[in-house]
């Protein structure tokens, strides 16, 4: 579990890109979390490039669940889609008639998107912590709940004290994926 699974570079959105060493236990924890939501009959589109951390959410859980990983970017056939909010926003919802649920990542998610797609998750974090918080988009802005075997705390940036609900702060993450 503590052996290196892969190394990936962050996007650098918080500064200079850096290499992150990801252990097997983090990838397995993430794959198990998503795989329990998948059906073996699902068709999951591989949206993100292999060099981007978001691909972790597409590939390993799909294979673990015995579902189909589609390399064809035809939204008409997929039942589960992980993509950017801007991509999902640009699609005509009638093109996604088979969609069971969608996950968005890599960009801020507008709340109105959750109204269009009630089974929407806003995910983030697979590089730095290999844990993804899942947010049901129901019109409430929230960081959501951590996946299994993960702890998340929102703390004040100066003293590390826990912030009350609704107060902005830094996200501290611990558990199997870190």
Explain this structure to me?
- The protein is an alpha/beta fold.
- It is built from four helices and nine strands; from the N terminus they run E-E-H-E-H-E-E-H-E-H-E-E-E.
- It has helices at 24-35, 55-65, 85-90, 111-116; strands at residues 4-9, 19-23, 43-45, 68-70, 80-83, 101-104, 120-122, 150-155, 170-175.
- The strands form three sheets. Strands 4-3-5-6-7 form a five-stranded parallel β-sheet. Strands 1-2 form a two-stranded antiparallel sheet.
- The longest helix is centred in the N-terminal third of the chain and has 12 residues, at 24-35.
- 33% of the residues are buried.
- The mean pLDDT is 83.
List the helices and strands and how they pair.
Elements: E1 4-9, E2 19-23, H1 24-35, E3 43-45, H2 55-65, E4 68-70, E5 80-83, H3 85-90, E6 101-104, H4 111-116, E7 120-122, E8 150-155, E9 170-175
Parallel strand pairs: 3-4, 3-5, 5-6, 6-7
Antiparallel strand pairs: 1-2, 8-9
Helix pairs in contact: 1-2
């Amino acid at each position: 579990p503590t052996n290196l699974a892969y190394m990936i570079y962050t996007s650098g959105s918080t500064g200079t890109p850096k290499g992150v060493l990801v252990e097997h236990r983090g990838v397995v924890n993430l794959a198990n979390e998503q795989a329990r939501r998948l059906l073996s009959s699902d068709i999951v589109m591989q949206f993100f490039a292999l060099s981007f951390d978001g691909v972790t959410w597409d590939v390993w859980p799909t294979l673990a669940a015995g579902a189909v990983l589609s390399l064809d970017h035809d939204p008409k056939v997929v039942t589960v889609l992980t993509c950017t909010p801007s991509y999902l926003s640009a699609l005509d919802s009638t093109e996604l008639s088979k969609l069971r649920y969608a996950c968005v990542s890599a960009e801020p998610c507008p709340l109105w998107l959750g109204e269009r797609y009630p089974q929407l998750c806003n995910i983030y974090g697979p590089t730095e912590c290999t844990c993804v918080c899942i947010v049901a988009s129901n019109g409430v802005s929230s960081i959501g709940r951590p996946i299994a075997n993960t702890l998340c705390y929102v703390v004040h940036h100066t003293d590390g004290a826990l912030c009350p609900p609704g107060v902005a702060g830094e996200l501290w993450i611990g558990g199997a994926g870190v």
